[in-house]
Specification:
Layout: E1 6-12, E2 15-21, H1 27-48, H2 56-61, H3 70-85, H4 101-118, E3 124-128, E4 131-135, E5 144-149, E6 156-162, E7 164-170, E8 187-194, H5 197-210, H6 212-225, E9 229-234, E10 239-241, E11 249-251, H7 252-255
Antiparallel strand pairs: 1-2, 2-3, 3-4, 4-7, 5-6, 6-11, 7-8, 8-9, 9-10
Helix pairs in contact: 1-4, 4-5, 5-6
Enzyme class: transferase
Cofactor: Mg(2+)
Organism: Nonomuraea typhae
């Protein structure tokens, strides 16, 4: 099936990123739009690379002079907010070094999604590994259909249908318990859905770090008070969802 719009996939932010625009705009507008999208993501990669001592984040960690980058200030502020919200389970300063890897990808994609909307590309899907941001329609009158995959087996566990939703899954990348510094192995994956991919990404990381008991309790409290819903997959493969999660889709075997 041929869709209006344009799509491109590149490797950036240490993963494969796909930008799929379905708004029927002329190619003379779409091509520069997608060029700018990946230019933005590469800028984020260069600026926030914790392994590069000459990135702005690397210079910040070493106490050297940094450029006046308002995005760096914003990211640090948002990470501090998430640390407070999660009682320290989201921690971007493990070992005294600032590493925003658990937040920056979701933040970059959320900013990109908003920029695409402002430019007129109101129907789009951005996918980066297990993080997805959808807006508008896949085709006129139909929402986007997103399969939430088990990061270990690759199988689709749940199918989500949405016109405006952020979906972040944690589990494949190494997540440590910020209180012990040890890798967390108590869960298979955590998926958080809601209105902002940056927040969803950070919350998924935090809940995964909490482990099965504390994570489930936090997820239920979160879903009762905030516009975010959670699916936790245990090591045994059992799915636990917060009450509002079911409104966004069905188990994969029922999706058809």
């Amino acid at each position: 099936m041929t869709f209006p719009g344009s799509a491109r996939t590149e490797t950036v932010l240490n993963t494969s990123v796909n930008v799929d625009i379905r708004t029927a705009l002329p190619q003379r507008e779409l091509i520069p739009m997608i060029d700018n999208a990946f230019a933005w993501l590469r800028w984020v990669e260069r600026t926030f690379d914790p392994s590069d001592p000459d990135s702005q984040l690397g210079r910040f960690n070493s106490g050297r002079t940094i450029e006046q980058v308002p995005e760096l200030v914003e990211v640090i502020h948002r990470c501090n907010e998430l640390a407070e919200t999660t009682d320290g389970w989201f921690d971007a300063r493990i070992g005294g070094v600032l590493d925003v890897s658990g937040y920056i990808k979701g933040w970059a994609l959320e900013r990109l999604s908003r920029a695409l909307c402002s430019a007129g590309a109101v129907d789009h899907r951005i996918t980066a590994g297990a993080d997805v941001r959808v807006r508008g329609s896949a085709v006129p009158g139909r929402p986007w259909r997103v399969g939430i995959r088990d990061p270990r087996s690759g199988s689709v566990r749940r199918m989500v249908f949405a016109n405006d939703l952020a979906i972040a899954t944690s589990g494949k990348a190494r997540v440590v318990d910020p209180r012990t510094g040890e890798p967390q192995r108590g869960l298979n994956s955590v998926t958080v859905i809601g209105p902002d991919l940056a927040v969803a990404d950070g919350l998924a990381t935090a809940i995964y770090a909490m482990g099965p008991v504390r994570g489930r309790r936090f997820a239920m409290d979160l879903a009762a008070a905030e516009p975010y819903q959670v699916m936790i997959v245990t090591r045994g493969g059992r799915s636990v969802i917060t009450p509002g999660f079911a409104a966004y889709g069905v188990p994969a075997e029922l999706a058809g």
